[in-house]
Design a protein that fits this description.
Layout (H helix, E strand, L loop, with lengths): L5 H5 L4 H4 L7 H11 L2 H9 L2 H13 L14 H12 L10 H12 L6 H17 L4 H21 L16 H12 L11 H9 L4 H20 L6 H18 L3 H23 L2
């Protein structure tokens, strides 16, 4: 049976209305969650921060000292160094990093000719989605499949024909990815599967949009999907997980330059309000 966090959830700022101002900082909010949540629930939250660990791991492997260490990762620079030391040790020791990150590091270190950064990013992203799907939480698993498919659609939309010989950075598995790969390989229209129903609509609508507009359109759709997914979870960890994902989306736009970030966060909010108004008038 799930644990309930009535006071925490009741006190969360409404991101839909206040995304531009009274938004909790991710680092501070995460620290608060760590102090409040049951360890098993906080572990699920920590999984959502693995993409920041990917950035830091790649920085470590490629020696990008000028690139700043991302403060939202779960693991420190010392953790990465310790993982490397354990790989070099003759003794068999437990990994410091999650299994897929440790495997990516080992593969990288064992190659005389180092793999490209894009290839490494793909391996880490696939490991991340697999971890979410296998985490034992239905909400996270459903979200992982949805976000993975959405990102594959966006990657396909943003690519220009003719496509690179080594293909696109499509990740994971599933029918949507298989159909997209066939479209790319054959260079022609292949009908997308009926499920998920949004796939065809996205390709048709987003094909006429600019890069920024596509990004916004995808985030708007992700936001609405999260709202629908969270609807029946009132005070459990699932609502907190959804909130963290939304907060990450807002933070991503706010990391853009001030004017551009403000413009697109404003569009995100206005789009949500417009859709809500249309539903009320039906």
């Amino acid at each position: 049976m799930g644990r309930y966090y009535h006071c925490l959830i009741a006190g969360l700022p409404d991101l839909e209305l206040n995304a531009g101002k009274a938004v909790p900082g991710l680092k501070k909010f995460r620290k608060e969650l760590r102090a409040i949540l049951h360890p098993d629930d906080y572990y699920l939250v920590s999984l959502l921060f693995y993409p920041y660990d990917h950035l830091n791991l790649l920085r470590f492997l490629y020696g990008d000292e000028e690139e700043p260490f991302h403060p939202l990762g779960n693991f420190s620079e010392e953790d990465f160094a310790e993982q490397k030391a354990r790989w070099q040790s003759i003794l068999e020791e437990e990994d410091v990093l999650p299994g897929y990150m440790a495997e990516a590091m080992v593969y990288f270190l064992e190659q005389e000719e180092k793999p490209g950064r894009l290839w490494m990013e793909k391996q880490l992203t696939e490991g991340y989605y697999h971890t979410l799907i296998q985490a034992g939480n239905e909400f996270l698993a459903k979200w992982a499949v949805y976000e993975r498919d959405m990102n594959n659609l966006l990657t396909t939309l943003n690519a220009r024909f003719p496509y690179p010989e080594d293909g696109l950075q499509l990740v994971g598995e599933g029918e949507v990815k298989e159909v997209l790969e066939k479209r790319i390989e054959q260079g022609k229209e292949i009908p997308l599967p009926p499920d998920p129903e949004y796939a065809t609509e996205i390709l048709e609508r987003a094909s006429s949009l600019s890069y920024d507009e596509r990004e916004w359109e995808m985030d708007l759709r992700k936001w609405k999907t999260l709202e629908d997914m969270m609807f029946f979870y009132y005070f459990t960890i699932e609502r907190i997980l959804g909130y963290v994902i939304m907060l990450k989306m807002v933070a991503r736009w706010q990391q853009l330059d001030a004017a551009r970030g403000k413009e697109w966060v404003g569009k995100l909010i206005e789009g949500l309000r417009r859709e809500a108004g249309e539903k009320m008038n039906r």
